[in-house]
Amino acid sequence: xxxxxxxxxxxxxxxxxxxxxxxxxxxxxxxxxxxxxxxxxxxxxxxxxxxxxxxxxxxxxxxxxxxxxxxxxxxxxxxxxxxxxxxxxxxxxxxxxxxxxxxxxxxxxxxxxxxxxxxxxxxxxxxxxxxxxxxxxxxxxxxxxxxxxxxxxxxxxxxxxxxxxxxxxxxxxxxxxxxxxxxxxxxxxxxxxxxxxxxxxxxxxxxxxxxxxxxxxxxxxxxxxxxxxxxxxxxxxxxxxxxxxxxxxxxxxx
Length: 254
Known about the structure:
Layout: E1 5-14, E2 20-26, E3 29-38, E4 41-49, H1 57-73, E5 77-79, E6 85-86, H2 89-110, E7 113-122, H3 124-132, H4 135-145, H5 153-184, E8 188-192, E9 199-208, H6 212-226, E10 230-238, H7 250-253
Antiparallel strand pairs: 1-4, 1-5, 1-6, 2-3, 3-4, 7-9, 7-10, 8-9
């Protein structure tokens, strides 16, 4: 293989045979997606120019769509993060051999499972109403308005602390009211740190593929109850990104 090319890996699967997953378009060229095997494990990969790939929209979409295509044909998919390129197929084979003891344990744990993401965002009107219903915050907010920037400095800090406290209590409520009931219907669940000020829940659920409809129903019921106060952003199915911790390093292959 020429120096200019490397092997980009998308995910790992459990399979007994060589497989192909069509083509991807990268850097304006179509490239075949194939497997590199070790025992009953395989990396889904493509030969690409050897360089650092930045997580811009087109590249991320290409990665996600390839993994989705693999998931539609295989029920045991171990996710690998975006942007991993190795120098040769031999490096990937060596890495697979190195990771195989982990894969052996993971395969039965994630077989037939998918990840579903749920973000709950507080609606502006609802959040404003919660602030107004907090007399201390309302009072502090009014006093800040009437003062100059420098005079209100400490009041602003105090107000920021109160707002943080209020948001934390709303996030805890959402965890109890939405996350915990859904957790009972999942194989596993994870509440990640909210990634914005108005996000009240940032959760991932690992569920059986054949129970996806049932889980959707539970999410719809929760949405029905909360739809006037919050927006639900529901995504998936994904491979188990939040439930699998595989670190890929070229050195490990050596």
